[in-house]
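= Tokenised fold =
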Amino acid sequence: MFNKTADQTAAPSARPSNTKSVFAADLKITGEVSSAGDIEMAGEVDGNISARSLAISADGRMKGLVRAETVDVKGKLDGQVDAGAFTLRATAQVAADVTYATLVIESGAQIEGRFAKRK
């Protein structure tokens, strides 16, 4: 399991307020990924991701459960999504059950699954 959170020993003013992790195209992760910040993914994840935001690049592949305030997909996503804001770009290929507060789907995005708006 991979976790990235603010340094708990640092004074509150010294903690990073906007952290970003980048998963390179040659990186493959199997398991759980958790971050208090943002994740930009060009690689492949087979497992679950929890983060403030997740951006899947055109080369990125995600299979599993995603929980994030914002999710922006240009690549492939297969599984389940629980997001505040969910954006599917024109190059997205998504097969997922999605729960969202706001949804944007660009022309050209390929989608399959169930979409449910939060109440």
About this structure: Confidence is low (pLDDT under 50) at residues 7-15. Residues 86 and 109 are 13 Å apart (CA to CA). The beta strands are 2-4, 20-23, 28-35, 38-41, 44-56, 61-73, 76-88, 93-105, 110-112, 115-117. The chain has one domain: 19-117.
